[in-house]
Specification:
Blueprint: E1 6-8, E2 28-32, H1 37-45, E3 49-50, E4 59-61, E5 65-70, H2 78-86, E6 89-93, H3 97-104, H4 118-129, E7 133-140, E8 145-154, E9 157-165, H5 170-184, E10 189-193, H6 197-200, E11 205-208, H7 209-219, E12 232-234
Parallel strand pairs: 1-2, 9-10
Antiparallel strand pairs: 2-4, 3-4, 5-10, 5-11, 6-7, 6-12, 7-8, 8-9
Helix pairs in contact: 3-4
Length: 239
């Protein structure tokens, strides 16, 4: 079966309408272009994200369903509440974006090949430098980095890219902290792209592409607190 895929022009950052994305593989919309800041930002503003493996061309996706959660509606299990109350960890914002993205890029037992390639790392480091991409870090009592996540902020939407954990529950701590911190600073929606059991356990649910696009259009030009992404330590709150 022949697949006809839109090839992006290197001269502009225009994407085809997301309703032209393929059904198989689900959400594949276009190929090519580059990973310039303008192109990536334009992609996120249209419910599109880059995702490809080493040796492939740059591929752009907008799946039929997105994994999303409203800020601060994260499910915190009893065991996670106990973990948070122990306070044997510290949570920070943008203290070491480089270390977070490089840890996220490491191969995993169930996923020996990483999609966070060197050119992806370089692109998102630039996005971090211009204040678009951000990280949440989890540190243990020895001040060692044990978990975290990173993503892109578009208006009142945070588009999560990846998370990692070097200790039990560390990535969950980062995700819960992000939810609370983002809401506290005026954020409304967190996009997790693809639904996994790990994310479902935290309260993330599938949202249709059309519904996600509507929410994104309503929120992408809204402003959050300007202090949200300043380097800082944050605390989680349990009701």
């Amino acid at each position: 079966m022949t697949i006809y895929l839109h090839e992006l022009s290197p001269e502009d950052v225009i994407f085809p309408p997301i309703d032209q994305a393929l059904e198989d593989p689900d959400g594949l919309l276009a190929m090519g272009g580059d990973l310039s800041c303008n192109r990536i930002i334009n992609a996120y503003r249209q419910a599109i994200f880059p995702w490809f493996s080493r040796g492939q061309p740059i591929l752009w996706w907008s799946p039929s369903y997105r994994a999303t959660i409203k800020a601060n509606l994260c499910h915190i299990s009893k065991s996670m509440k106990r973990c948070i109350r122990k306070q044997a960890h510290q949570i920070s914002i943008n203290h070491n974006f480089d270390a977070v993205i490089r840890n996220c890029a490491q191969p995993r037992a169930a996923q020996p090949e990483t999609w966070i390639t060197d050119i992806m790392i370089k692109a998102y480091l630039v996005l971090h430098e211009i204040g678009i991409a951000h990280s949440v870090e989890v540190w243990d009592e020895r001040n060692m980095l044990i978990g975290g996540l990173y993503g892109v902020n578009i208006g009142k939407v945070f588009c999560g890219e990846s998370m990692f954990s070097l200790a039990s529950n560390a990535s969950k701590l980062a995700f819960i902290a992000l939810n609370q911190h983002f809401k506290k600073n005026g954020g409304e929606l967190i996009d997790c792209q693809m639904l996994t059991q790990h994310l479902q356990s935290l309260g993330v649910k599938p949202t249709s592409r059309d519904e996600f696009q509507k929410q994104l259009i309503n929120l992408r030009d809204e402003q959050i607190n300007s202090d949200c992404w300043k380097q800082q330590m944050i605390e989680m709150v349990l009701s």
